[in-house]
Amino acid sequence: LAKSQGGQRYAFFDESLKQQLLNRVQVEADLRTAIKENQFILYYQPQVDLAKGRVTGLEALIRWQHPEKGLIPPNAFIPIAEQTGLITTLDTWSLREACRQLKEWQAAGLADVTVSVNLSAQQFQDSELLPLVATVLSETGLRPEHLDLEITESCAMSSPACAISIMQALTELGVSISIDDFGTGYSSLAYLKQFPIETLKIDRSFVMNIESDDKVASLCDSIAHLAHRLGLRVVAEGVETEEQLKFLVSSACDSVQGYFFSKPLPVASVLQFAHSFAWQQVGQPVTYFALD
Ligand code: C2E
Ligand code: MG
Ligand code: MG
Ligand code: MG
């Protein structure tokens, strides 16, 4: 009996592994076609500066417009793009497209807004990154202070000494750097203070538990204070509720990003949102409103 069960388990395992491999091979082939046929688009999620009460940042988030499967979120293809090395092609496209798009919005009257672009670890460590960023800025005419590059905490910490020198070179170009998903990696505080970065983004996994877990709330509060002591800005990601927002206001978070204010928006909706959005904090309780 044990033997036949073992055999079945093996067969089952083998089958699902085969499925995974087939899926990977299929997605990789599809991705190559998608790159050739330009099937990617960017959505932009507003970042609201709480002191200014307006949109001061837009995070560019890639989506795959699959001809049959519709809009595919990044989590469904970024891991495979990373495994196959296609990620640097996607990141290069996102960077160029986001800079071009912000420049176009600036021409339409959008002022004092920065675009944030996510970089994979591969792209961050690529020796071509610096010339690429410089070329994209000069091609698009975007001023470097309007470009922010997001790298994850785990990417920055995987080889901190290397990361510092890449970050230094990038900041010499005039762009700013944010540490994304902060709190999910294992930051050495000694390195954190040496990174020439501007912003820490508190990961959504913390923000979502602010109301249910006092310890998580204290952690968010501590991260915000730590960041400020290091002279960094703090952005909270994944803010969905008014309670979370109130807490983050009380922790002196600088900006928030999340469904409470806005989901990532298609290009056509961004200008109207940014122009009409206003948020005001009138004592307690916090009030907010979006004008139309
Ligand atoms: P991320 O950089 O941490 O981006 C934030 C993610 O959280 C986005 O998911 C966003 O839609 C989602 N989010 C924001 N606010 C909320 C909220 O209130 N509730 C919930 N449930 N989710 C919220 P998205 O767009 O699916 O992107 C997932 C990840 O894919 C990004 O995480 C980023 O790591 C990666 N990514 C996106 N675009 C690019 C790109 O161009 N290059 C690279 N290398 N990675 C990218
Ligand atoms: Mg990000
Ligand atoms: Mg993030
Ligand atoms: Mg995240």
Automatic annotation (TrEMBL):
Keywords: c-di-GMP, Phosphoprotein. One of its GO terms (biological process) is phosphorelay signal transduction system. GO terms for molecular function: cyclic-guanylate-specific phosphodiesterase activity. This is cyclic-guanylate-specific phosphodiesterase. The keyword Phosphoprotein applies. The chain holds residues 426 to 717 of 719 of the full protein. Residues 24-278 form the EAL domain.
